[in-house]
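Reopening this one. Same input as before:
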Amino acid sequence: MKIAYIQPSYPDHTSMFPLDCIHFMLKKAKELDEGTDLLVLPEYANCPGLNDFAELTRFIEQDSAGFLDELSEIAKNKQIHIVSNIIRNRANNWRNSTVWIDRSGNRLAEYDKTHLTSFEKEGLHFTQGDEVRFLEVEGVKVVFATCFELYFAEYFARLAALKPDLIVVPTYQRSENSELLQLQASARAMDSGAFLLRCAYSMGVMSQTGGMSMLVHPRGN
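Same output, byte for byte:
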């Protein structure tokens, strides 16, 4: 499986705005090399850099309403799988959802983040998920985790019981030490005995925090 992942600059609302970040990710997706099998985008891909609930929901409903449909078109046109984390409203419940789109542009699997941060629960009023998602794609067994869930070794023990080949982890972490993020991802890959793909935002080349998009081997490399 040939894997690509995009690490966009985190929107700072001066040189990079949320909609610019989305346009950057879509542009890069359209420019992918031929032969790519899977593309992964970071957490909050349809509303990066937004923290106010009213602003975030307005942006999703107006400015980025067609984001997932556009990804489906890219997946179909490029004949690739795309995984994107988005924030969305389902049955009047706002959820942090990771969506797997297949080569035909269909939504093959969806995972709602189970371990929400305090801010997601109290400040953004999100509804947590309550089940693990597992799928097998072209012989590869896949499970999902999202951002903050990398802290929960017990959750990864649950994922490991499913004997996955790949764990896809879209993330938003920006303030944590970059070296710690790398060690954390390596530990979870070793815990699980699976490849772990972590996709994040860049805080800049000089930053000591955030970033660290990577594919980690089950041995932690």
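So the earlier flakiness isn't reproducible anymore. For the record, The longest helix spans residues 178-192.
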